[in-house]
């Protein structure tokens, strides 16, 4: 039966978006959710990284759903379902999950809470951010049958599947946000990625009369499907932006990607209700301050040194942190008359390595020659 959401925002922005979140392992009981060895139908076993991600992402998904899925969907037979309330009913209890595994995906149906989650398998890297969907039907069999009749559905993609029915322990759903100084390095890197997206989009809210844009970012965790950012814009408007969290399929690193802008009153009301009481990070952007790319373009009249030239003047060199990922990052730098790096901007290289390269570049010191210089550094990650 088709679901109809009362307030548009939470499912409109959720449909098709991804979910992947990290929590402590103590909240989950998955001791039998282990596909070891190839069985007769040829499905490859879950890797250790995939098992680990399954164990940590599922509990977090329920916490995230309780926070964001606060609207009630009404089904055709007048069945009314509030996913957050359904999950809360099982806090501290066991819940049955139907697990489907193929070489490409892991899908889990929770009939009791009307929720379906699909992960793409990245094998040695773990699991991708999953898609998820709430459904009105009273069982996954009924749901899948209807999707198949419509010609689409998550299980209608061919291939060979292995199925299991397991018990999942729903741990504590409440959580206390961590202060920024307690964030993991992974979360700090994701925040930096998110902030870059926010900075780029903030410029669209500038105007001749409005030269400062403020943004509020609700707390998030690594692997959340998305984050919502609220802007204080001209004329009292409060547009919002949805930022999707993705995972690099070559490195496994998480990153932020702009998804959409929105701002209808009912959409904003739903978001504000969901983030009420959450820890917020407030940032401010100066519309008159040029972007790093703009400032680099202003260096065209300066003496531009080759990498060998830059390195020949270096008095202190700092290599970037080893992240266990191979690649090369090119960083353009601007050096002031005192030999300090006043601007560093990564222009090429794998995204997960760029922040570390820029951080290292800012720590370089050069022999002063009485004038500003521009050049680039190439950092090799092995």
Topology:
Elements: E1 4-5, H1 8-12, H2 48-68, E2 72-74, E3 80-82, H3 83-88, E4 94-101, E5 105-110, E6 115-120, E7 131-134, H4 140-150, E8 162-169, H5 185-202, E9 212-218, E10 226-232, E11 240-247, E12 254-262, H6 265-275, E13 280-286, H7 292-297, E14 303-305, H8 307-312, E15 314-316, E16 327-335, E17 341-348, H9 351-362, E18 365-366, E19 373-381
Parallel strand pairs: 14-19
Antiparallel strand pairs: 1-2, 2-3, 4-5, 4-8, 5-6, 6-7, 9-10, 9-13, 10-11, 11-12, 15-18, 16-17, 16-19
Structural notes for this entry:
There is one protein chain. The protein is an alpha+beta fold and 382 residues long. The chain has three domains: 4-169, no CATH class; 180-288, no CATH class; 293-381, TolA/TonB C-terminal domain, CATH 3.30.2420.10. 25% of the residues lie in helices and 29% in strands. The chain contains nine helices and 19 strands. The protein has helices at residues 8-12, 48-68, 83-88, 140-150, 185-202, 265-275, 292-297, 307-312, 351-362, and strands at 4-5, 72-74, 80-82, 94-101, 105-110, 115-120, 131-134, 162-169, 212-218, 226-232, 240-247, 254-262, 280-286, 303-305, 314-316, 327-335, 341-348, 365-366, 373-381. The chain has a five-stranded antiparallel sheet with strand order 7-6-5-4-8, with no helix packed on it. It has a five-stranded antiparallel sheet with strand order 12-11-10-9-13, sandwiched between helices. Strands 14-19-16-17 form a four-stranded mixed sheet. The longest helix has 21 residues, at 48-68. Mean pLDDT is 76; it is low at 1-40.
């Amino acid at each position: 039966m088709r679901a109809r959401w009362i307030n548009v925002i939470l499912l409109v922005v959720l449909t098709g978006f991804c979910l992947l979140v990290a929590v402590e392992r103590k909240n989950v009981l998955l001791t039998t959710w282990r596909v070891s060895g190839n069985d007769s139908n040829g499905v490859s076993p879950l890797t250790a990284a995939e098992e680990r991600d399954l164990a940590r992402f599922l509990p977090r998904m329920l916490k995230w759903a309780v926070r964001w899925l606060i609207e009630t969907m009404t089904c055709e037979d007048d069945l009314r379902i509030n996913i957050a309330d359904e999950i809360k009913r099982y806090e501290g209890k066991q819940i049955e999950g139907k697990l489907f595994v193929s070489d490409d995906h892991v899908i889990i149906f929770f009939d009791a809470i009307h929720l379906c989650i699909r992960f793409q398998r990245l094998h040695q890297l773990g699991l991708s951010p999953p898609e998820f969907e709430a459904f009105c039907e009273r069982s996954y069999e009924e749901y899948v049958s209807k999707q198949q009749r419509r010609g689409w559905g998550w299980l209608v993609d061919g291939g060979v599947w292995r199925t299991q029915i397991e018990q999942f322990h729903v741990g504590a759903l409440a959580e206390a946000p961590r202060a920024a100084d307690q964030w993991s390095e992974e979360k700090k890197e994701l925040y930096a990625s998110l902030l870059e997206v926010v900075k780029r989009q903030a410029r669209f809210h500038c105007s001749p009369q409005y030269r400062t844009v403020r943004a509020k970012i609700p707390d998030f965790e690594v692997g959340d499907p998305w984050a919502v950012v609220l802007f204080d814009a001209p004329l009292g408007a409060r547009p919002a932006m949805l930022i999707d969290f993705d995972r690099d399929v070559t490195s496994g690193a998480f990153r932020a990607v702009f998804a959409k802008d929105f701002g209808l009153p009912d959409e904003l009301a739903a978001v504000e209700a969901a983030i009420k009481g959450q820890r917020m990070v407030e940032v401010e952007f100066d519309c008159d301050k040029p972007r790093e790319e703009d400032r680099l373009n202003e260096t065209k009249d300066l003496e531009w040194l080759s990498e060998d030239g830059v390195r020949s003047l270096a008095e202190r060199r700092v290599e970037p942190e080893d992240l266990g990922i191979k690649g090369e990052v090119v960083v353009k730098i601007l050096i002031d008359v005192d030999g300090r790096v006043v601007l560093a901007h990564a222009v090429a290289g794998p995204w997960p390595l760029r922040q570390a390269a820029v951080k290292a570049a800012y720590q370089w010191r050069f022999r002063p020659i009485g004038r500003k210089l521009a050049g680039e550094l190439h950092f090799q990650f092995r």
